[in-house]
């Protein structure tokens, strides 16, 4: 059956398209999750639990950088005073399943974007439909950069902070595997989605829901929120806080620039 035009589609037709979008995306995620199951040993031992070892690349980078800048050597991570334990009978099985699904979602993100693009493309102009490849590439690139930023910056800093924080010497840090995996997944996916902000702002500006003036007006509030987040997840030194803050500020500034370009192009078309 031929696909209907946008003007011919009813509300139920749109729901049907959305349903198939979700079905195809879910199938893709499950297929990739099955693939990651066969390399789960590497995913857990090398990737997920990598930040629990003092020789993780981020810790060594900050240690070398702090020595070059003349900061105190106590910034260097020499030990991780905590253990990770499983406290639920089905805990490790659940962790394995949901970690594979999360990995499938991350790997399948470009395909999900392609499905989203096909869903929204009927509402776009012909000239905008030609930018499908650019949309998929730029969105995927931003997402994967955000994932890497979350993994190599946010996760190790968070792990180091919570591992060394204690209210008393009497209390020993023993984290559940669910809690640790949750921190890793949340940090990685949240950063990946945050780096999608320029793409989100593009579409919100196209819809008239956001303007450059609005984004610039609330810029100071965005800066405060970013600084608070950076202060929470980083050790108490200026270098690490700057490393976390600058990319987030650049993403916000890029969003404002994109919003300005969209508004400028719309004014040209209307004028």
From TrEMBL:
GO cellular component, one term: TAT protein transport complex
A molecular-function term among this protein's GO annotations: proton motive force dependent protein transmembrane transporter activity
UniProt cross-references to InterPro entries, sorted A to Z: TatC
GO biological process: intracellular protein transmembrane transport; protein transport by the Tat complex
Entry keyword Phosphoprotein: no
Keyword hit for Protein transport: yes
Keywords for this protein: Cell membrane, Membrane, Protein transport, Translocation, Transmembrane, Transmembrane helix, Transport
Cellular location(s): Cell membrane; Membrane
Recorded topology in the membrane: Multi-pass membrane protein
Segments traversing the membrane: 21-44, 95-114, 134-159, 179-205, 217-236, 242-263
The protein's role, per its UniProt record: Part of the twin-arginine translocation (Tat) system that transports large folded proteins containing a characteristic twin-arginine motif in their signal peptide across membranes.
Family affiliation: Belongs to the TatC family.
Quaternary structure note: Forms a complex with TatA.
Entries under PANTHER family matching the protein: SEC-INDEPENDENT PROTEIN TRANSLOCASE PROTEIN TATC (PTHR30371), SEC-INDEPENDENT PROTEIN TRANSLOCASE PROTEIN TATC, CHLOROPLASTIC-RELATED (PTHR30371:SF0)
HAMAP family registered for this protein in UniProt: TatC
Protein name stated in the entry: Sec-independent protein translocase protein TatC
Organism encoding this protein: Flavobacterium micromati
């Amino acid at each position: 059956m031929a696909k209907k035009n946008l003007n011919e589609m009813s509300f139920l037709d749109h729901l049907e398209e959305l349903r198939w979008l979700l079905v195809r995306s879910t199938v893709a995620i499950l297929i990739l999750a099955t693939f990651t199951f066969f390399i789960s040993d590497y995913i857990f031992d090398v990737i997920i639990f990598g930040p629990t070892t003092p020789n993780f690349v981020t810790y060594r980078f900050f240690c070398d950088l702090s020595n070059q800048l003349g900061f105190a050597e106590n910034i260097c991570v020499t030990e991780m005073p905590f253990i990770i334990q499983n406290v639920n009978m089905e805990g490790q099985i659940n962790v394995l399943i949901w970690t594979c699904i999360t990995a499938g979602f991350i790997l399948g993100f470009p395909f999900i974007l392609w499905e989203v693009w096909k869903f929204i493309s009927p509402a776009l102009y012909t000239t905008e439909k030609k930018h499908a490849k650019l949309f998929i590439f730029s969105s995927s690139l931003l997402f994967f950069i955000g994932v890497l930023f979350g993994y190599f910056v946010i996760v190790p800093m968070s792990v180091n902070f919570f591992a060394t924080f204690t209210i008393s010497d009497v209390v020993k840090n023993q984290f559940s595997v669910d809690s640790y995996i949750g921190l890793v997944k949340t940090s990685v996916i949240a950063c990946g989605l945050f780096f999608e902000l320029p793409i989100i702002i593009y579409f919100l500006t196209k819809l008239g829901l956001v303007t450059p003036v609005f984004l610039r007006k609330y810029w100071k509030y965005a800066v405060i929120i970013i600084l608070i987040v950076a202060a929470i997840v980083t050790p108490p030194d200026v270098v690490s806080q700057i490393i976390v803050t600058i990319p987030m500020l650049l993403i916000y500034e890029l969003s404002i620039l994109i919003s300005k370009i969209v508004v400028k192009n719309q004014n040209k078309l209307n004028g």
